Amino acid sequence: MAQTLALSGNHNNEGGRHFSPTSCAGNPRALSSPDVNWDKYAAALFDLDGVITPTAEVHMRAWAVMFNEFLEDYPDAAPYTDEDYFAYVDGKPRYDGVASFLESRSIELPRGETSDPADASTIAGLGNRKNDAFNRVLAEEGVQAYPGSLRLIEKLHEAGIPMAVVSSSRNAPAVLDAAGVTKFFPVIMHGALAEKRGLPGKPAPDTFIAAAADLGVPVEGSVVLEDAISGVKAGAAGGFGLVIGVDRGVGADALTDAGAGLVVTDLEELL
Ligand SMILES: [Mg+2]
């Protein structure tokens, strides 16, 4: 299917950006954007949470489901709200978030062990219960890919550029399935697979390098797309052809300092 994919017009050249339309008649792979000449690259490696899907929202819902079920046994405690999420849970390791919220309600539970079952009345048990809630929310409510990300993924797929997902999350395959995008990614490097293969996580570059190898492409010919400082650092350390920082709130300067060669706020800008 010979198809010209170069897009033109309506490009916002703020910030000194420069766009040179590329002539690409008859080349099925030709695909250009204001900032990225995809013809130069052999593959694209995507982080998942915050790049392809707004998974943070699913995690927020899962915390609410878990804590509100738990609080049914504590009728005198104030219900869990989104304000609690930002005050006590957001950004913390899972069990620390549980402990912090329980403290806010003056509820004391033993710490427990990571291996505690989800119904254990321990901090670890509640943390594990949250992971079950995450999978339940995902199954019941699903998750939608960011529209701009989906459009870029579809474009690259049509252009024949192979793509991988490189995510620290053990839930990555389930999230990709729920978002309906698994079919675009012949390689999915997720948390459990990295552990199985003994690969250190981001900011070490190993998971990205392994994904490129699995796709059969050279790192210097591959593009990394990441929203986290640790992920951008991994791409920069791995010697990838281009690291694109996706600024979902971390800040463009922080992503640039970490090694991003280009920063966008949405993948829509790369179309
Ligand atoms: Mg991310």
What does this structure look like?
This protein is of the alpha/beta class and 271 residues long. It is 39% helix and 9% strand. Strands 3-2-1-4-5-6 form a six-stranded parallel β-sheet, sandwiched between helices. Strand 5, helix 10 (252-258) and strand 6 form a beta-alpha-beta unit. Helix 1 crosses helix 4 (123-141), helix 2 crosses helix 3 and helix 3 crosses helix 4 (123-141). The longest helix has 19 residues, at 123-141. The radius of gyration is 21 Å and the shape is elongated. Bound molecules: magnesium ion. Magnesium ion is lined by residues 47, 49-51, 227-228, 231.
Any idea what the radius of gyration is? 21 Å
If strands are numbered along the chain, what order do they take across the biggest sheet? 3-2-1-4-5-6
Average pLDDT works out at 88
Termini separation comes to 20 Å
Supply the CATH superfamily name of the largest domain. Answer: HAD superfamily/HAD-like
Concise synopsis of the structure shown:
By secondary structure, the protein is of the alpha/beta class. The chain is 39% helix and 9% strand. It folds into two domains: 14-54 and 147-270, HAD superfamily/HAD-like (Rossmann fold); 55-141, DNA polymerase, domain 1 (Orthogonal Bundle).
Could you list some keywords that capture this structure?
about 270 residues; alpha/beta; Rossmann fold; DNA polymerase, domain 1; 2 domains; six-stranded parallel beta sheet; 10 helices; binds magnesium ion
